[in-house]
Amino acid sequence: MNDKTFRVLEFQKVMDLVQEQARTILGKQEIEGMKPARSLETIQTLQNETDEAMHLIRQLLHVPFSAVQDVQPLLKRSDIGSMLFTEEVLAIGQLLYCGRNVKHFIEQVELDLPLLKGHVADVETLRHLEKDIFSKIDDHGEVVDDASRALYGIRQQIKQNETRIRERLQQYIRSKSKMLSDSIITIRNNRYVLPVKQEYRQTIGGIVHDQSSSGQTLFMEPQAITSINNELNHLFVKEKQEIEKILYALTETIAINQDAIQANQTMIAQLDAIFARAYYGQSIDAAMPTLNTKGKIDVKVARHPLIPEEDVVANDILIGDDYHAIVITGPNTGGKTVTLKLIGLFVLMTQSGIPIPAQDGCEMAVYEQVFADIGDEQSIEQSLSTFSSHMSNIVTIIDQIDEKSLVLFDELGSGTDPQEGASLAISILDYVGSKGSMVMATTHYPELKVYAYNRPATINASMEFNSETLAPTYRLMIGIPGRSNAFDISRRLGLADQIIQQATGFIQEDSQSLNEMIADLEQKRRKAEQESHRLEKQIQESDRLLEELKRETETLEFAKQKEIDKAKKEANSILSKTKEEAELLMQEIREMQMNVSKNAQVKEHELIGLRKQFDDLRQEDTVPSNKVLRREKEKKKLKVGDEVITESYGQRGILVEKSGQDQWVVQLGIMKMKLPETDLRRIQPEPEKETRRTKRQIATVRSNTASHVSTQLDLRGFRYEEALQELDSYLDASLLAGYPQVTIVHGKGTGAIRKGVTDALKRHPQVKSFDFAPQSSGGNGATIAVFKG
Questions:
Q1: What are the angstrom distances between the C-alpha of 302 and each of 293, 339, 345, 722?
Q2: Residue 194 and residue 188: Cα distance in Å, rounded?
Q3: What share of the chain is helix, strand, coil (3-state, %, to 5)?
Q4: Domains in the chain, ordered, with CATH?
Q5: What is the pTM of this model?
Q6: SS3 at position 113
Q7: What is the tens place of the pLDDT at every residue in 401-412?
Q8: Rg (CA), the chain
Q9: What phi and psi, each to the nearest 5 degrees, are found at residue 347?
């Protein structure tokens, strides 16, 4: 890479835009010294660093860079023993503060950023030195009173002497105000003085340190404060000496740690430059290209980075795949030179780790050298040059090119006789091709159109021109050579047809046929592109409608489910109220039953069935997705003696016998009921309880005979919820049996079931009282409940 290429392609203008994105002076300096790399590995690292930074920016995370300066000169001075001043020591502290914050931020980000984290991994933050600096120097660059004990004592004495001086001078102001030009205390030559009128000089007495321009006012130090002023000045000298002592100590510590300080500066500069590249890429909607060493450049919707967004025309460019040379023809000001500079800039930007303004998925080749012969090295708008200057530059280029070079020729062979210029251009392109270099060239010569058509690995291209508007469109058309538009333009501008027809006759038949062929190709290409754009719009519209349909379907399903859930909740609320009323009715039935004969008792299963009818009406808000599968799996395991839960009644029972193909006889407390197999769910026994008793042995409300309700309920071994369900059923059965009292054995254990039994008995409307059993009958491991009347 050479500076001449940088100037011709205006690479420095791009770097200036990148530099504007830097947050620190160190980052700007780092960018200023950057040159495009030539090693694929180095370039890939630069690109990956920028990509990591862009990923961080897309997460709305920003590195906390703060104001710093280049401290390299300060480190050199500290190394030779020269004392650093307060502002310089403060600059070191600010650098360490910025370095510590940047390192901490990068290390704490929960993203995969191996390269960025590698920049901070080995950097020592020197927190002790940073704290030492900021504890002794404030933000204004002043050494604080507490920087040392000696400095604190000296400054206390200074304040005391200043107070004494001011008190004495205030006495003068109050008692001798007529002798003073103004009632103020001021300072001259670091000594406190009063503005005394000239005529009262002898009356006041003392030392004159200054006078006004008119001579009417003398700034005098009264004799009474001379000794205090002398002492104050002596304290100032001691203060200065103590400050120098503090700064020397800090400078020495800085010198000892200069390598770590330099590492912090390098880290800040490199990271700031990386993020500047990323911020610039984001600002121009750029992409990170894939790299190759095969000379292939494939970019779509490529935009020149130096042309304003509202003016730039995007182009697709492919080189290095099926062809290694492109010959671009077309009228002046059609955009040929801009296209050359675009490719050259893209290569330089890519090899500097800068994203390129193109569509994602772009691919760029890595070159060791980029050569450009474009105009007179001035701006895009003024690309004029002489033949001699062109050839001088071309001679220099062809002496250096190889298979790893990219060569850009603008108006190759121009500035001389057209026939000779075209011949030279063809020979130069052949020579560059023999060296294996990639080449792009612009020209006006029709001979080069044929050259690009006949030579292998070479292709024609042109800049589109709208003959109706007489203006270029700046769109690159690969595969189609440019044609002359002189006759069309002249006709549109009003030149007589006779003149145009005569001029047409002077053109060779081959040239005329070539122009007609090019025009036909342009027309067909334009139609194909229009059809492609139309189909692309239709596809985009179809995709948009599909997405809208998906969103509307999801919204509808959500609203539907919401209404269903709302209806279920409302229904459940009504059923809950109804159930409460039903419970009250059932309680009245029980109370009535207590007053009738035993033969007239209402059957317990009838009460349970009545209550369950209300439970069956309740809608489940959420139905387990695997409920049916679970039932099918569990019903295959059912056998006589299994303990089960009835889904309809919510009661525990024991399987007595199978009745029919899908029916079971189930013992529910004192009752036997025939239930369908699909209504039964087997309860797994608890292994640790098997050695003592089984669930079947502790099935509630029953004793030695099936027709008798036991006066004792044993809840040991049950889980909390199961125990409360058993207790509720048992109390109902005991009331129906007419027992005056019952015993509930809950054990001691953790006390959870005992508390649940106590709470349930408190709430039960038919329980008159309850208390723990006597010690001989279980003590606080059992509770005796007494029923009402």
A1: 20, 10, 11, 73
A2: 9
A3: 55, 15, 30
A4: 8-126+258-283 (1.10.1420.10), 147-250 (1.10.1420.10), 290-492 (3.40.50.300), 508-619 (no CATH), 624-695 (2.30.30.30), 700-789 (3.30.1370.110)
A5: 0.61
A6: coil
A7: 999 999 999 988
A8: 49
A9: -65, -45
